[in-house]
Design goal:
Elements (H helix, E strand, L loop, with lengths): L7 E5 L8 E8 L2 E5 L6 E4 L3 E7 L3
Antiparallel strand pairs: 1-2, 1-5, 2-3, 3-4
Length: 58
């Protein structure tokens, strides 16, 4: 099991959306597909995400 997996809530730590919370919908290679209230759907490099302890069902 990976640390960043489907349903994990993460905080973006690099880029224009720094500090915003997102939910990971899926992971493919080094990229996580995310969406959130303040962030449009898209893909982000997993190195730019900080995982939290929270998990939601997707």
């Amino acid at each position: 099991m990976q640390l960043i997996d489907s349903g994990r809530i993460c905080i973006i730590r690099k880029g224009r959306k720094t500090g915003k919370k997102v939910v990971v919908t899926s992971v493919k290679g080094n990229y996580a597909f995310v969406e959130g209230k303040e962030v449009k759907k898209g893909k982000i490099n997993i190195r730019h995400l900080y995982p939290t302890k929270e998990i939601k069902k997707v």
